[in-house]
Specification:
single chain; BirA Bifunctional Protein, domain 2; Rossmann fold; alpha+beta; globular; YbaK protein
Length: 570
């Protein structure tokens, strides 16, 4: 491809709405253009990268034994109603109606569709195991689209699904996909690592996310340097001592706390109640009914963990008016002592705690000497808190660390949640009907593209790994004079590399060398060959690996040097 025939609209400055480096470089390097919030057009170079990532994904999915299919993006709501997710996932749906006013859903994911297909096609244990995958456009109604392709309304995803006859066989399928994901991200040039993850509205027994470390990542990962422990903050646990027990027999005492509205206010004089001796009372609405959630004053509630405890993701923080209607008090003086008509969920760290302080459900008053098991009727104890830096690793006891990361893949072991709901059953060896055991596995293809940029860049632009670069080589003749020795050599190298199957771009623009070099670095071509009259007079051309140093080589060795640089390094 010649630059003058291509469309590579590079920008000198970043658009004002681009917040993170990868989003800026996507736009500046001319890979995508924004149509509207969360909607992007892939320009030719961006599409080339996307197709290369897709090809890597296809090769590894095929290697793992998965069969490629292509499912409709338009889905009937009935299958979502059967699975039970029509309500729980409704906030992300785009719904449309046809001319008959029938409702349809633009697919945010395809568990229901694939399970419906399997229910009609697989009926015997002899047909299992089977795994299917597709690379398909998904649609999700993001509340706040941001960061370019990271959080978009429309995106491309590889989703795969396994169906097995037993839990043990399902674990084998899960491991195959886990291993395939490891290879996919390695081949894309990403340093991704797996972490234990929450299953969320997907349900299932357990899952892992594949994370790319990035300061601008939307996820927080808890990890231990001393061992292999790593988990999403939504799933992470730690070894932490329980709340110190005081005098559990001491009578509750109400005391005045005028002006106190926060945990921190109560730690100050004249009260001086340590945060770890306070009970934080939170009010949530679940199906329009209030519930109380208790955590220790120095801890933060992890709402993802609350999903598993409540058994639903459909909940929200109560409004001030709803809180007053439930407890007769406003935030700042809330508590669960003697509350009998509302369900109370408490974090495990509070179990057995006494000599605690909490709100009295009366403005300007708190209660001290609270023994949580004596004075509060807890419906359910659960791990509800977020792990904090420095807490002990649950595996080895060493201090935990937290870093930000980008999620690029997620694997779930779903069990029989969907196959039971959608009647995807098979006959076992005894002729008995059994629900297939299911797994699902997703990779955000467009998100992976941007994650590569987020991880592989410098002050000058993108540094593409060879495997996914839009073009691996950029030939840059300096001085565009038709018929000149410079252009003749540029054309010769271009033809020879093209004949070898190398993705090569010839920068045939009549522009200044500085402009060409800056654009080549911005776009991120792994190898650049510069050909100028001065170097040619010495029988040389200049070879530069992106991010490396300039190297003078003999002109007759240019092609062999490039081919050597393109070979995988041991």
């Amino acid at each position: 491809m010649r630059w003058t025939q291509a469309l590579i609209p590079t920008l000198k400055e970043s658009p004002s709405d681009a917040e993170i480096v990868s989003h800026k470089l996507l736009l500046r390097a001319g890979l995508v253009r924004k149509l509207s919030g969360g909607l992007y057009t892939f320009l030719p170079l961006g599409l080339r990268v996307l197709r290369k990532i897709e090809q890597i994904v296809r090769e590894e999915m095929d290697r793992a034994g998965a069969l490629e299919v292509l499912m409709p993006a338009l889905q009937p709501p009935e299958i979502w109603q059967q699975s039970g997710r029509y309500e729980t996932a409704s906030e992300v749906f785009y719904k449309v109606r046809d001319r008959a006013k029938k409702e349809w859903i633009l697919g945010p994911t395809h568990e229901e569709v694939i399970t419906t297909m399997v229910a009609g096609e697989l009926s015997s244990y002899r047909q299992l195991p089977k795994s299917f995958y597709q690379i398909q456009t998904k649609f999700r109604d993001e509340i706040r689209p941001r960061f370019g392709l990271m959080r978009a309304k429309e995106f491309i995803m590889k989703d795969a699904y396994s169906f097995d006859s037993s839990d043990e066989a399902a674990q084998v399928s899960y491991q195959k996909m886990y291993d395939a994901y490891t290879r996919i991200f390695e081949r894309c040039g990403l340093k991704a690592f797996p972490v234990e993850a929450d299953t969320g509205v997907m349900g299932g027994k357990f899952s892992h996310e594949f994370m790319v470390p990035a300061e601008t990542g939307e996820n927080e990962v808890v990890y231990c340097d001393a061992c292999s422990y790593a988990a999403n903050i939504e799933k992470a646990t730690s070894k932490i001592a329980g709340t110190p027990a005081g005098d559990s027999a001491a009578a509750i005492e109400k005391f005045a706390t005028p002006g106190v509205k926060t945990i921190e206010d109560l730690t100050k004089a004249p009260y001086e109640v340590a945060a770890q001796q306070q009970i934080k009372t939170l009010v949530y609405m679940v199906e329009d009914k209030p519930v109380l959630v208790l955590v220790r004053g120095d801890h933060q509630l992890n709402e993802a963990k609350l999903v598993g405890t409540l058994g639903t993701a459909t909940f929200r923080a109560a409004t001030v008016d709803e809180i007053f209607a439930a407890l007769g008090a406003y935030p700042g003086s809330l508590g669960a002592v003697s509350v009998k008509d509302l369900p109370v969920y408490a974090d495990e760290i509070l179990r057995g705690a006494s000599s605690m302080t909490t709100g009295a459900n009366e403005k300007g008053f708190h209660l001290r000497n609270v023994s949580i098991e004596r004075d509060i009727q807890v419906k359910q104890w659960a791990d509800l808190r977020s792990v904090q830096v420095g807490e002990a690793c649950p595996k080895c006891g060493e201090p935990l660390k937290v870093r930000r990361a980008i999620e690029v893949g997620h694997v779930f072991k779903l069990g029989t949640k969907y196959t039971e709901a959608l009647n995807a059953v098979y006959s076992d060896e005894a002729g008995k009907q059994q629900p297939a055991v299911m797994g699902c596995y997703g990779i955000g293809v467009t998100r992976t593209l941007q994650a590569v940029i987020e991880q592989c860049n410098d002050k000058d632009g993108i540094i593409w790994p060879l495997s996914v670069a839009p073009y691996r080589v950029c030939i840059t003749p300096l001085g565009i004079v038709p018929g000149s020795a410079v252009m003749a050599l540029a054309e010769k190298i271009y033809a020879e590399l093209s004949a070898q199957g190398v993705d090569v771009l010839l920068d045939d623009r009549d522009d200044r060398p500085g402009v060409k070099f800056k654009d080549a670095d911005l776009v991120g071509f792994p190898i650049r060959i510069a050909i100028g009259e001065k170097s040619l007079a010495k029988g040389e051309v200049e070879l530069k690996l992106r991010g490396g140093v300039l190297k003078a080589i003999k002109q007759e060795e240019a092609v062999s040097e490039i081919l050597a640089a393109l070979k995988p390094q041991p």
